[in-house]
Amino acid sequence: MAHHPRQTTGTVPRPAPEVVASFEAATGFMPLDEGLALYAAAVDAAARTGLPLLEIGTYCGRSAILLAAAARDAGTVALTVDHHRGSEEQQPGWEYHDASLVDPEVGRMDTLPRFRRTLHAAGLEDHVIALVGRSPQVAAVWGAPVGLVFIDGGHTDEHATADYEGWVPHLAGDGLLVVHDVFPDPADGGQAPYRVYRRALAEGFAEVSVTGSLRVLRRRAR
Ligand SMILES: C[S@@+](CC[C@H](N)C(=O)[O-])C[C@H]1O[C@@H](n2cnc3c(N)ncnc32)[C@H](O)[C@@H]1O
Fold first, then answer.
1. Nearest Cα to 29, choosing from 98, 104, 88?
2. If you take atom 3 of ligand 1, which residue's CA is the nearest one?
3. Were both Cys, which of 100, 150, 181, 219 would link to 193 (CB 3.0–4.6 Å)?
4. For the purposes of burial, counting CB atoms within 10 Å of the CB of 49, is it exposed (0-12), middle (13-18) or buried (19 or more)?
5. Which of these is catalytic: 83, 155, 159, 180?
6. Residue 41: in which H helix or E strand, if any?
7. Distance separating alpha carbons of residues 120 and 34, to the nearest angstrom
8. pTM of the model
9. Active site residue 155
10. Tens-place pLDDT, residues 13-47
């Protein structure tokens, strides 16, 4: 297997420049500082567990690039779950709609082709398993532990809660939980991910890092 050196800044792992370039070129909304924090958590989780790294909310693969790079370098794999029909806020007429992502034949969003092209262009498609389906349905039949759960799927209470309840039981004891779009102030954004984050803190997780709206958590020692 080819060796893919990582840059390091102090003790914080940083993706190789070509991985950062692929991330920045990918369709999506995650800013670089949050991506770097996600990558550092992924490297940490892979090193401490050796287990696959799971994402809920693939969209076009922007954050999956980082999980795939971390998984590749640790000899594991990234898993990414999405029905690829877009979240509420990505539908026509809503703030985050991108008309270029609509399948004209079906008349609905389909982010899977863009995701596949993105991971191919990044040279990382062999390091990601795309799970196409509804997160709670996939979680209900999933039977293996994962080293990281990154919640970035639907941002309603129904979806964010189902992602938490469906996937945290699959998280290894020493794995990491990452939640995106955590906004303590309602003026900054929707509150469902914040409520999931609060629930995790109340249910035995402790905060490891805060970067923008990205929260990294790990289980407290008992
Ligand atoms: C905010 S986007 C993910 C962004 C991506 N993580 C990135 O950084 O580029 C949310 C995604 O979650 C997906 N999604 C929403 N609800 C879902 C559900 N219940 N099951 C599976 N995927 C879902 C949508 O289709 C959408 O692609």
1. 98
2. 57
3. 181
4. buried
5. 155
6. helix 32-49
7. 23
8. 0.95
9. yes
10. 999 999 999 999 999 999 999 999 999 999 999 99
